[in-house]
Design brief:
Number of helices: 10
Order of helices and strands: HHHHHHHHHH
Shape: elongated
Largest sheet: none
Strand content: under 5%
Distance between the termini: 40 Å
Length: 252
C-alpha cells in the first residue's frame, strides 16, 4: 500500500513539475540562449552516435532482411527498400533515436541536476530569485523537442544508406532502383506522424530526466538512484508513447 502511495505521489509531483516547465516556455522563447546551448549538447553532440548507430542498423537490416526475402522468392530483395522506408520512418527511426538520446543525454542531465540538488546549488538559485524549473528544466525540454526530430531523420537517412550499401554489395541492386522502390509506399502523412512522435517523445524524456534530477537526495548515492530511475522510466516511456501515438494515428 505504501509503495502505491509513493508511486501516485511521484506521478502527482511529475504532473505539477510538467505544468511548471510548460509555463516557463514563453520566457525561454524570448531569451533562447540556454535553449541553443542545450540543442548543442543534446543534438549536435549526439550526431556522431546517431549516424554510426543508424548506419550499422541499416547494414544489419539490409543483410538479414535481404537474405530472408531472397530465400522466400528469388528477386524480391529489390523491394526491401519499400518496406524499410516505411518501417524506419514510422517506428524504427523514432524509437532507436529516442533510446540513444535516453542513454547519452538523459542520464547526464539527471546526474547534473541531481548533483546541483544535493549540493544545494538549486537552493542558491532560489535565493537569487531564479526559478530553478524555468532555468534548468524548460530549456532542456524545448531543446529535446527540437533536437530529437532532426536526429531522427538523420538516423533514418543513414539507416537507408547502410541498407542500400549492404543490398548493393550482396544483391547488386542499383541505387536508382533502391530509391524508387523506397518512395512507392511512403506517404507525407507517415513523415508528419513521425515528426509528431519525435517532438512528443523528445519533450517527455527530457521532462523525466530533469524531474528525477530535482528529486535526487541523500548525496551521491541518491544521484545514482535518480539517474537509474530516469533511464528506466524514460526508456519505458519511449516504447509506451510510440505505441500510444501509433494507435491514435491508425484511428485517423
Amino acid at each position: 500500500m505504501k509503495k502505491i502511495e509513493e508511486i501516485l505521489s511521484e506521478i502527482g509531483n511529475f504532473f505539477i513539475f510538467f505544468l511548471e516547465s510548460i509555463y516557463y516556455m514563453w520566457e525561454n522563447i524570448k531569451n533562447p540562449l540556454q535553449v541553443f546551448e542545450n540543442i548543442y549538447f543534446i543534438g549536435v553532440k549526439s550526431i556522431i552516435v546517431v549516424v554510426a548507430t543508424g548506419f550499422f542498423m541499416g547494414l544489419i537490416l539490409g543483410l538479414q532482411l535481404g537474405d530472408a526475402l531472397e530465400s522466400i522468392i528469388t528477386g524480391t530483395s529489390q523491394y526491401l527498400s519499400g518496406a524499410l522506408s516505411v518501417a524506419l520512418v514510422k517506428e524504427l527511426g523514432p524509437v532507436f533515436t529516442s533510446l540513444i538520446v535516453v542513454s547519452r543525454v538523459c542520464s547526464s542531465v539527471t546526474a547534473h541536476i541531481g548533483t546541483m540538488k544535493v549540493t544545494e546549488q538549486i537552493d542558491a538559485l532560489k535565493t537569487f530569485g531564479v526559478n530553478p524549473v524555468g532555468y534548468l528544466a524548460t530549456p532542456r525540454v524545448m531543446a529535446g523537442m527540437i533536437s530529437l526530430p532532426i536526429l531522427g531523420f538523420i538516423s533514418i537517412l543513414t539507416s537507408m544508406f547502410g541498407a542500400w550499401l549492404m543490398i548493393s554489395l550482396t544483391q547488386e541492386i542499383p541505387a536508382i532502383v533502391f530509391i524508387e522502390v523506397a518512395q512507392i509506399p511512403l506517404r507525407i502523412r507517415y513523415i508528419f506522424e513521425s515528426l509528431i512522435k519525435m517532438i512528443v517523445i523528445g519533450g517527455f524524456i527530457l521532462e523525466i530526466s530533469t524531474f528525477y534530477g530535482f528529486q535526487a537526495k541523500n548525496g551521491a548515492a541518491g544521484v545514482g538512484e535518480a539517474t537509474i530511475k530516469s533511464v528506466v522510466v524514460s526508456s519505458f516511456l519511449v516504447i509506451l508513447l510510440d505505441y500510444m501515438l501509433g494507435a491514435i494515428f491508425l484511428l485517423f
